[in-house]
Amino acid sequence: MEEITLPYSEEIEKYVLSALLADNDVFGKIEDILIHKGVFFFEQHQVIFSSMLNFFKKERVVTVQTLSQVLDQEYFVSYGNAEQYLLSLEKSFIGFIKIEEHARYLAELYLKREIVKLAQDMVFLSDISKGNSVQDIIENVEQKLSAISQTSVKESCASIKEVMEVSIDSLKHRKSEVVSGVVTGFTELNNLTGGFQTSDLIVVAGRPSMGKTALVVNQSLYVAEDFKKSENGKSVLFFSLEMSAEQIANRMLSIKAQVNSFRMRTGKLSKEEQINVLKVSGELSELPLFIDDTPNLSIFQVRSKIRHQCMKNNVGIVFIDYLQLLNSNHSKRYDSRVQEVSEITKGLKQIAKEINIPIVALSQLSRSVEQREDKKPQLSDLRESGSIEQDADLVMFIYREAYYLMRTQPKAGTEAHDIWVKKMSDIDKKSEIIIAKQRNGPIGSVNLFFDSNSTLFRDLDSQHIEESV
Q1: For residue 173, is it within any domain?
Q2: What is the tally of structural domains in the chain?
Q3: Angstrom distance (rounded) from CA 314 to CA 102
Q4: What is the structure's pLDDT at 332?
Q5: Same domain for 63 and 122?
Q6: What is the mean pLDDT of residues 204-231?
Q7: Residues above pLDDT 90, as percent of the chain
Q8: Which residues contact 344 (CB under 8 A, 6 or more apart)?
Q9: What b/e string do you get for 332-353 counting C-beta neighbours within 10 Å, with b at 16 or more?
Q10: Do 378 and 304 have their domain in common?
């Protein structure tokens, strides 16, 4: 039988303990989550947390000095002594970043370890030499599974009174502004959505050459600039599974410097443009934005990377380009790609909810769009859609009529060509963002300005259109 590795996270265990050392009041936020020392996998962490619990129950202050005096030194011999290990924990503290979410993650890992142990017990009890009846085995397993289940649901139930108190408190502190979530980067889109909301999965879909990647690259920049301006300590995490980090960075330079992306890539910029690009590169370097271009990621690897970056850089939003390049589970076989994509979208929604941040994922559309006279995308066009429509809280389609009209150019010198030229001049710089689904808001569409040369998206107004003509 294949040996099973018990799930754990040494990094998060150390982080939670360092947070408790930094501020004892943190315990009040997680005492109902970390219910006993078994939540920690490593023995030295179990010993530390057990002693912390005793201190907290007696309302004694926990410090490196007070704690090291009561710890059993035998668990820390390889680290020098208990005090040295506690000092290393204290030194590793990186700030109070999503402490409750990380505590819940440790509790989840503990439950998974218990399930693995239960499965091993089932194998042991089922050994024919033990003489256990099937009924005895079932009853034994049911009792242990029930105990695990009771532990897992401890924090999931709240009275309507508690929920109402949280809701009213949130309303009291909410500013009377349009954006209640993370800014989308565009005024009309903010008006329609209220911003990207925490715990939401947002899917941005479109056919090739519509500007999907360009749109979210623009949005990641707008959000990073907003985070920096507000000084909220948050950052943007961008997963690029198709393009390299350098290619994404070049796009960002092209957007902010408003220079032709092809000419920049081929080194054909004017001296003035080169100076501008250098200036913009310095500004971009100061943004709280991180790019991960690891290819062929599984949903589990994405979850791990997001958690790590949340601890390290306090991630406020995640962008993923794009959904169909993710794998659900490298070790599992699926009957169809549709089934696997369904697992991926469910996983992304779970991550968004667990960590309480919005996740924006790009998605391809099927070729069925091209078969219709009306090329505007619909929910049914989501390629390998599986449960994308069901799992997503917000589905946005990007549509550029000019892309299709460009391919129907009539013969020059004809009346039809004159009409075509006028139509092209009206729509060439316009891109339509269609809100096809919004779980907690209206559907509708907004028009944005789009410059295909620099891949710049911005709010649409008459000035931009006139400048582009």
Answers
A1: no
A2: 2
A3: 12
A4: 57
A5: yes
A6: 92
A7: 32
A8: 299, 323, 326, 327, 328
A9: eeeeeeeebbbbbbbbbbebbb
A10: yes
- At 308, which CATH number? 3.40.50.300
pTM metric for this prediction: 0.72
| Least reliable range by pLDDT among 10-19, 29-38, 137-146, 429-438 | 137-146
Residue 367 has pLDDT above 90, yes or no: no
**Per-residue three-class SS string for the chain:** CCCCCCCCCHHHHHHHHHHHHHCHHHHHHHCCCCCCHHHCCCHHHHHHHHHHHHHHHCCCCCCHHHHHCCCCHHHHHHHCCHHHHHHHHHHHCCCCCCHHHHHHHHHHHHHHHHHHHHHHHHHHHCCHHHCCCHHHHHHHHHHHHHHHHHHHCCCCCCCHHHHHHHHHHHHHHCCCCCCCCECCCCHHHHHHHCCECCCCEEEEEECCCCCHHHHHHHHHHHHHHHHHHHCCCCEEEEEECCCCHHHHHHHHHHHHHCCCHHHHHCCCCCHHHHHHHHHHHHHHHCCCEEEECCCCCEHHHHHHHHHHHHHHHCEEEEEEECHHHCECCCCCCCCCHHHHHHHHHHHHHHHHHHHCCCEEEEEEECCHHHHCCCCCCCHHHECCCCCHHHHCCEEEEEECHHHHHHHHCCCCCCHHHHHHHHHHHHHCCEEEEEEEEECCCCCEEEEEEEECCCCEEEECCHHHHHHHC
Q: Which domain holds residue 57?
A: 10-152
Q: What is the Cα–Cα distance from 218 to 431, expressed in whole angstroms?
A: 14
> CA nearest 430: which of 404, 412, 396?
404
% of residues, the chain, pLDDT over 70: 88
Say whether both 244 and 122 belong to one domain.
no
What is the average per-residue pLDDT within 401-427?
Answer: 82
- 462 token code pair: 């008459």
Do 141 and 187 lie in a common domain?
Answer: no
In the prediction, which pLDDT does 148 show? 62
Both tokens of residue 338?
A: 């549709």
